Structure prediction request, 233 residues.
Amino acid sequence: MRNKRITSKTVAPLFRAKERRRKKLARLPIEEKVRIIVELQTIENEIRRATGRPTKPEWDLRE
Amino acid sequence: MEKTLRVLNELQDAGIIEKYAVGGAVAATFYMEPVATYDLDIFVVLPEKKTVLTTLSPIYEYLRGKGYAEQEAHIIIEGVPVQFIPIYNALVEEAVDHARNTRYGKVKTRVLRPEYLAAIMLQTNRPKDRTRLTAFVEEAKMDKENLERILKDHGLTRKWQEFGRRFRAK
Prediction:
């Protein structure tokens, strides 16, 4: 392995931080979570375009 | 999405549907981190008619009349692709009956409870359900007794135990 000095112990704090972030996101108000869903749709469509796959319709939540 | 939910409430008020509940990824998002999705799954109970055939046509006719366009299996309501799913088994029927009354912004709506969402994901068992369920059980607060009762009543206890062994760390 190239990164011999990196072990699962080294990355454990990163995984714990991810876990904390997921729990923090879970506590957000639903309206904020739906806004994030739309952001995820935009990001996924950017990847789809970059890889030549058809995009999907993003939600238009303008009230 | 407030406007979308308002239209769903109109469908109910007009008697086109008896009741509805938000399901799928959006319902899961009420209880966990946001889940990537492109559609809003709506489980519907249709008014009882003297026909055996369950049809979504009245919903589509009503919405077409309001100017909303269909796109494959969805109908775009106020910018959101909505998929209507008639209740298709006893678990889903019970889930809609016991849906939680809540609000999205200023609009009243009904959302499936987390215990039912977990049971439906387990029963549906597509790869994406298994992935979502793994995260869901970690993040969503569930009433353990209620979950166990639902799993037992719908013959899912063994499947749940198997899921626990294969996909869950604890």
